[in-house]
Model the fold of this input.
Amino acid sequence: MMNKKIAEGCLSVCKKEKCPVSCCDDVGVEEWVMEYLAFHDRARVFWESKGIKFKFKGDRVGVTNCSTGKECKFLKYSLSKDYDQRPIDCKIYPYFVDWEEIDFNKKKINLYFADFDCPLTKEQMPPEFKDNVSRIIKRDFSLLFFGADFEVIFHDQCKYDIYKTKRVVKIVRAKN
Ligand code: SF4
Ligand code: SF4
Done:
């Protein structure tokens, strides 16, 4: 059963509990297998004991039942006070990493808006927010890729709405 949506933005500038939008959807979160293996596999039994479900779908892992309806379980039952253990896309929302567009030769990562629901997307995105997102991406990708230093490129636009139309857009892109 789908849990109630909650607002789980943690970064500064995020409107947090005052936000009119609940950006958290614990039925639609995915991470790449590589990300899962690096950050979640070792504690899988622990997370599953809290009710979180991981389901492999090809090269991705779906994460469901990850909220209590009031809080994110990765935050509520955190195993580290220093490290946010949520999937990367949860940590940087309203941005998301387009893994298919990562340039591994030049070490460039493109970030797009996942959707336009977040009020931060309606105005000039604060530099402070981007700095925090950039820091998270650089740190996590350095951990994933043996210390590599990736450049983060922000696109303050929606490539596709990953939560509502991803499947449709992917079909269209495949035909082109
Ligand atoms: S992992 Fe946490 S922040 Fe991400 S969708 Fe689930 S409940 Fe929300
Ligand atoms: S929708 Fe945006 S501003 Fe609102 S809680 Fe989520 S990240 Fe923060």
